[in-house]
């Protein structure tokens, strides 16, 4: 039987891992940026209004650019935090 970490790593390598961002675990515990931090950074990068939810900011980013602008931003932010070269989106 493989460990859950090994299974997650294999899914990541295959490009079949889905990342769900939620409020279940605090950023202080996970080391990952909060949804508010991600929304702020995304808004700043694309010149959008600050103070909106991540979902609203992502929708505006997609309308302004394309969905790859949002996924690329998430990949960059999360890759930096988890210490990998890139997050496959």
Task: For the structure shown, list the relevant keywords.
89 residues; mainly alpha; 61% helix; globular
H/E topology pattern: HHHHH
State the secondary-structure class. Answer: mainly alpha
Total helices: the number is 5
- Can you give the mean pLDDT? 82
Give the strand content. under 5%
Tell me the distance between the termini. Answer: 27 Å
Task: Give the C-alpha Rg.
Answer: 14 Å
What fraction, in percent, of the residue positions are helical?
A: 55-70%
- Give the CA-based shape: globular
Based on the structure, what is the oligomeric state of the protein chains? single chain
Sheet bearing the most strands, described?
Answer: none
Low-confidence stretches: none
Number of strands: 0
SSE layout and pairing:
Blueprint: H1 4-14, H2 27-30, H3 35-46, H4 54-64, H5 67-82
Helix pairs in contact: 3-4, 4-5
């Amino acid at each position: 039987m493989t460990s859950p970490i090994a299974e997650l790593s294999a899914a990541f390598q295959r490009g079949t891992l889905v990342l769900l961002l939620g409020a279940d675990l605090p950023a202080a515990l996970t080391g990952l940026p909060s949804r508010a931090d991600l929304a702020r950074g995304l808004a700043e990068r694309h010149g959008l209004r600050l103070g909106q939810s991540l979902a609203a900011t992502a929708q505006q980013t997609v309308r302004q650019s394309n969905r790859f602008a949002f996924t690329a931003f998430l990949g960059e932010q999360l890759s930096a935090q988890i210490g990998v070269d890139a997050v496959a989106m």
